[in-house]
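Worked example

This section walks through a single chain of length 371. The input is the sequence exactly as stored; nothing has been trimmed or padded.
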Amino acid sequence: MTQATTAAAALQEARQAPGSRADRAIKRRRVLDILDAAGRDSLLLTTNTALTWYLDGSRVHISLAGDPIAALLVDRDGDHLVTFNNEAGRIAAEELPAGVNLHTVPWYGNLHQAAAAVGTSGQPPLPEADATAQLRAARQQLLPAESARYSLLSAELAGIMTDVLSAARPDTTEFGLVSSLAARVVAAGAEPLVLLCNGSSRSSFRHPLATHSPLGRRAMAVVCARRDGLVANITRWIRFDAGTPEERDAEARIAAVEADIFDATVPGARLDSIFTEIKAAYVRHGFGADQWEQHHQGGPAGYAGRDPRVTAAVSDTVVRDQAFTWNPSGPAVKIEDTAQLTESGLQVLTADPRWPSTIVNGLERPVTLQL
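Given that input, the structure is written out below as tokens.
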């Protein structure tokens, strides 16, 4: 077996769900610490974000737009996953981590009530909503196996963007482009949670759902894809001419805004302080004081697209091994990648060496692909 084959096999193993027993043991300890601090004996997890994090990548959804088809009670005696009777076979065969007890409820039953009742404690469980901040903090530092899965997903997503966008033409429609992206994302075993595209006629929209419009001379594509619970986010631009001086200038300035945000993303920094730096960076690089109000600025990433979106009201502290997707934007410009704050600094995960790039403040960043 060659070194490349061995590395590929290791990465493939890393992305298998149910996930790492070692990572799951650390996550259970983090939840027990939450219970200790709250003086409670059990915690009921009910959201997709919390469930996929705690189960380390298990799929607990059917409809992407629907509620999870499972709930999980963590108590001091063990973990209890409750699902509907018509889901139990697949969950048991493909998604149930070792050491998790599986219980069923009729498909017409009350999932949360059933999950709350399986514990051994005499008191009601702590609802997930009452431990939102604590659970978010527990998810911040990605562990080794989930970091490997996230890196693999992000790199594959970046490669998909390169492949699909490189084949685009001015008469390709926005729907045509995102359908090609969606097909590749699904073929990679992931779920396309967000697919956006604007051609040159619709470049003023910050969240452009695709239409039948042709791409024209310039286009943006955005994909947020989930696999094993982890969500990778990426934006890329293409054009079919040399671009205008104004476009090239705005692209360079938005990358400079991002570089300032990256510089502020260090262990120990508070998210509200980074948000203050974001607002200052727009002014510093000539976008005006109101640009931060035109679109959300991103924030920590991982088991949610943003966990959470950064605002002046979010005071979470940045930690090492945490993932981020910042996405500063201006009129007809935007830059976005998924990165992880490692011991040696921010490492961009959604990177493909085939995509054209430039060095911005010491970090390789994507530029518009000219076709």
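What to look for: Residues 201 and 216 are 7 Å apart (CA to CA).
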